[in-house]
Amino acid sequence: SPLNPLFQAMESEISAAFDGGGPEDILSRAFKLTVTREDICTLQPLGWLNDRIMNFYMGLLVERSKKEGYPAVYAFNTFFYSKLSSTNHKGVKKWTKGVDIFEHDVILVPIHLRIHWTLLVVDLREKTIKYFDSLGQKGDHICKTVLKYLEEESREKRNIELTASEWTLHSMGTEEIPQQNNGNDCGVFVCKFADFISRDKPIIFTPEHMPYFRRKMVWEIIHQQLL
């Protein structure tokens, strides 16, 4: 209930994050990222989430996945896909230096398409690549680009050939996942798609949850802890 003292303390902290000082004040630091008040302010109603907020939140999801009972999650940086699509595997080879992405259960690829955020999810347990777009656009070519990347990464890193025919590629339809009802919430949708998927939970939120999710994310980023 809103009268809960804990809830009130959180609310006042969230408001202070938006209005409590200068834009360059540092409010959180982790995952080699620094989040300023200006970054946090993109979580205000109708704000457009920036790369820093997206990458920080993905970092929180990866951190949580190290706990007992969660699938092992690897998340690529938001700049990964644009680099991959404009070059090739060689162009991003160093991004996974010292990491075997195939030791994970789920790989998250947040994607920035000029002015829109979408999410690609690789499930290595099921051999599926799914594309999540809260505006309902198809991303079959994006799925194919990432499958090709996985084939080359597997060959190069593990000397194992992936059998492409064993993989299922699918762009989620508008009846399968919630859709945004404005031009601003795509980043929050991507973060929450990733949140539910990285807990193996069905995606049951709606656009009505967005204002709440935004405020909750402010608290989570400042405290570096998912609620």
TrEMBL record:
One example of a Gene Ontology biological process annotation: regulation of primary metabolic process
Lyase recorded as keyword: no
Domain of life according to the entry: Eukaryota
Alphabetically ordered keywords of this record: Hydrolase, Protease, Thiol protease
InterPro entries in the record: Papain-like_cys_pep_sf (IPR038765), Peptidase_C48_C (IPR003653)
Keyword Cell membrane: no
Molecular function terms, GO-annotated: deSUMOylase activity
Domain Ubiquitin-like protease family profile: 33-197
Family: Belongs to the peptidase C48 family.
Protein name, as recorded: SENP2 protease
Protein species of origin: Rhodinocichla rosea
Gene that this polypeptide is encoded by: Senp2
